[in-house]
Amino acid sequence: MNAAQMQSASLDQQMRVSRDFFSIYNQMTDNCFSRCVSNFNYNQLTKDEASCIHSCCDKLVKMNHRGMAIFMDVQTKKQQAMMEQVTQMEQQQQNQDQTVLPSIGSETKQST
Length: 112
Fold this sequence. Notes:
By secondary structure, the protein is mostly helical. It has one domain (13-91): Orthogonal Bundle (Helix Hairpins), CATH 1.10.287. It is built from 2 helices and no strands. The longest helix is centred in the last third of the chain and has 65 residues, at 47-111. It is elongated and about 85 Å long. It starts with a helix and ends with a helix. 1% of the residues are buried. The mean pLDDT is 84. InterPro entries: Mito_inner_translocase_sub, Tim10-like, Tim10-like_dom_sf. This is Mitochondrial import inner membrane translocase subunit. GO terms for molecular function: metal ion binding. It comes from Lingula anatina (Brachiopod).
C-alpha cells in the first residue's frame, strides 16, 4: 500500500468515525428531546426539562461508555484467540513440513 492509499484509507476511517459519532449524538439528542421537552410556550427550557435533559444525556453517555468498554474487551479477547489459532496453525504446518521433508530426503537417497 503506497502513501496515497494509506492517506485515503485513514481519511475514510476518520469519516466513518465522525459519521458514527454524529449519528449517536443525533439519536441521543432526539431521544432526550422527545422524552423531556413538553412545553413549547417558552423559548427557554423549564427547570424540570433542563434537569430531565441533563439526566437523560448523562445516562446515555455513561451507557455508551460502558458499551464501548465491553466491546473493546470482547474485541481484544477475540483478537487474542485468533492470534493463538494462527500460531497453532503455523506450528502444525511447521510440524507437517518437518515430517514431510525427512521422508522426501530418504526417498531420494533410496532411489539413487
